[in-house]
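For the sake of clarity, the format in which proteins appear in this thesis is described at this point. The record quoted next illustrates the convention:

___
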Amino acid sequence: MIILGVDTSGYSVSVALTSDRELLGEYTVLSKDLRNAVTLQPLIDSLMASCRMKLKDVELFAVANGPGSFTGIRSGLVTVKAMAYAAGSMAIGISSLRALARVAQEQDALVLPMFDARGGRVYASLYRDGKACCSDEPRTIEALVRQVAPMIEEGERVIVTGNGLPVFEKENINLPFITESAPAERQIIRASAVAQLAFEDWELGVAETDPFKLDAHYAIAPSAERQKQA
């Protein structure tokens, strides 16, 4: 199965083509000033050309659907839904935190991926063996530590990763568990991880594949919606 993976949920734009579990090609661009909507389509076009494939060859589209940047998530979703519709193919949304946890995963370690949610808060969840152990709504580092500490056994390593890492380090909390920061190249989502997770979910039959039902997971309402509700 040919899969196109896409991530625009953070400070990077990443696209990857895979054939089942084999990586065919991947481009990742990192910049805090990145304009996802402008950068994404040229990256996809270049990747498809370099792999000598066309849109109709893609059987499954996969996109990181949040939490993360509201604008970035929207641009990725709109692009993937349009491509899947045009190709008559399936589309699957993958948690951004889950994809980030896959990138940073090491043997015999837990992963604590986090995205900066502003105001001293982060979107985060603790991952054990690739599965989330708690919800991912935005909260302070103190509240996060209080929640995940009982889930971590004595002596277990916890790898912290993502653009929320500076928020975590700034708090300088006396932690009741062992942490280490992921290296820089594993602090961003790789579209290949998004594609791999989508393929695994498709194989297990646990994912919604209708592109019309593909939606964002913001973990919190966008600011415009919150103002309407106020």
Q: What stands out?
A: Residues 110 and 128 are 5 Å apart (CA to CA). The chain is about 35% helix and 25% strand. The two ends are 46 Å apart (CA to CA). The domain at 106-186 is CATH 3.30.420.40 (Nucleotidyltransferase; domain 5).
